[in-house]
């Protein structure tokens, strides 16, 4: 199984500042034939299902604010939230869809400082 | 816009069978996509259970493989999950989700989710 490890487990950031969440896969999730990284990012607010933010590691889902951005390749990935808003308080998960079983990171809880 | 809604018993006895159904509206499940189940134990992260393609092909998490069955009922626009011999470790919030498919038919990201249904395992 591909193990996804996120860091930190939690972080507190001031409104208007930048939040950075890291995700590391235990093996490369870059498919060389199409040069795509098989990684998604999700936001889960309390009492709600996860919501897709980013796919292919850096492609923003339609309707997601442009303050959310994804980067990285191979085994190391980052979700950056710029200009943090109060509504961004949530748990964020990365997920690999490179191979079964599809696996998620343990989650990063983002709070306002 | 596609909508998914889970349904089923909220309480299952140990060693019995958990059965859940996901009703899909706004899209015909026979037209495409993978249709998956994901669960989230209380206060914990997300675990992929398994997937069914619109054609009926299934893929399961090996950690559950021998206990899980996912089926599809296109006439009702539903797909279902059966998990046998449940224990306390199977107590969780169970989500159904639609999975994006890229050219070539590869299983990609979860683009739509149901609200989830909580399952408790207790006698």
How would you explain this protein's 3D organization?
- The complex is a heterodimer of chains A (113) and B (123).
- With 113 residues, chain A is mostly beta strands.
- Chain A contains no helices and 13 strands.
- Chain A is globular, with a radius of gyration of 13 Å.
- With 123 residues, chain B is mainly beta.
- Chain B contains no helices and eleven strands.
- The model of chain B has no long low-confidence stretch (mean pLDDT 94).
- The chains are: A mainly beta (113), B mainly beta (123).
Task: State the main characteristics.
heterodimer, A: 113 residues, mainly beta, seven-stranded mixed beta sheet, 13 strands, B: mainly beta, four-stranded antiparallel beta sheet, 0% helix
What's the arrangement of secondary structure elements?
The complex is a heterodimer of chains A (113) and B (123).
Chain A: E1 4-7, E2 10-13, E3 19-25, E4 30-31, E5 36-37, E6 39-44, E7 51-55, E8 59-60, E9 68-73, E10 76-81, E11 90-96, E12 103-104, E13 108-112
Parallel strand pairs in A: 2-13
Antiparallel strand pairs in A: 1-3, 3-10, 4-5, 6-7, 6-11, 7-8, 9-10, 11-12, 11-13
Chain B: E1 3-7, E2 11-12, E3 18-25, E4 34-40, E5 47-53, E6 58-60, E7 68-73, E8 78-83, E9 92-101, E10 107-113, E11 117-121
Parallel strand pairs in B: 2-11
Antiparallel strand pairs in B: 1-3, 3-8, 4-5, 4-9, 5-6, 7-8, 9-10, 9-11
Would you list the SSEs of chain B in sequence order as H and E?
Answer: EEEEEEEEEEE
**Sheet with the most strands of chain A?**
7 strands, mixed
Structural class of chain A: mainly beta
Largest sheet of chain B: 7 strands, mixed
* Low-pLDDT segments of chain B: none
Share of residues in helices of chain B = under 10%
Residues in β-strands, percent of chain A = over 45%
Q: Spell the H/E element sequence of chain A.
A: EEEEEEEEEEEEE
Number of strands of chain A: 13
Shape of chain B: globular
Protein structure class of chain B = mainly beta
What is Rg of chain A? 13 Å
- What is the radius of gyration of chain B? 14 Å
End-to-end Cα distance of chain B: 39 Å
State the total count of DSSP E strands of chain B. Answer: 11
Tell me the overall shape of chain A.
globular
Query: Termini of chain A, distance in Å?
Result: 36 Å
Low-confidence sequence ranges of chain A? none
Note the quaternary state here. Answer: heterodimer
């Amino acid at each position: 199984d591909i193990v996804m490890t996120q860091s930190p487990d939690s972080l507190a950031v001031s409104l208007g500042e930048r939040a950075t969440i890291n995700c590391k896969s235990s093996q490369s999730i870059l498919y060389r034939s199409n040069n795509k990284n098989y990684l998604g990012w999700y936001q889960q607010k309390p009492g709600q299902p996860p919501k897709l933010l980013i796919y292919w590691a850096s492609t923003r889902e339609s309707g997601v604010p442009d303050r959310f951005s994804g980067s990285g390749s191979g085994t190391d990935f980052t979700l950056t939230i710029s200009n943090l808003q109060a509504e961004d308080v949530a748990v964020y998960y990365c997920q690999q869809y490179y191979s079964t079983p599809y696996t998620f990171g343990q989650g990063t809880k983002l709070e306002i400082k | 816009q596609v909508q998914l809604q889970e349904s089923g018993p909220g309480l299952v006895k140990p060693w019995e069978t958990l059965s859940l159904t996901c009703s899909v509206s706004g899209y015909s499940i026979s037209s495409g996509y993978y249709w998956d189940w994901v669960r989230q134990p209380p206060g914990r992260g997300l675990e992929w259970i398994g997937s069914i393609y619109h054609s009926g092909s299934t893929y399961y998490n090996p950690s559950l493989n021998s206990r899980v069955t996912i089926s599809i009922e296109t006439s009702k626009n539903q797909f279902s999950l059966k998990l046998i011999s449940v224990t306390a470790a199977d107590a969780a919030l169970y989500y159904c989700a639609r999975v994006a498919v890229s050219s070539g038919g590869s299983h990609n990201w979860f683009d739509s989710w149901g609200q989830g249904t909580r399952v408790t395992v207790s006698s």
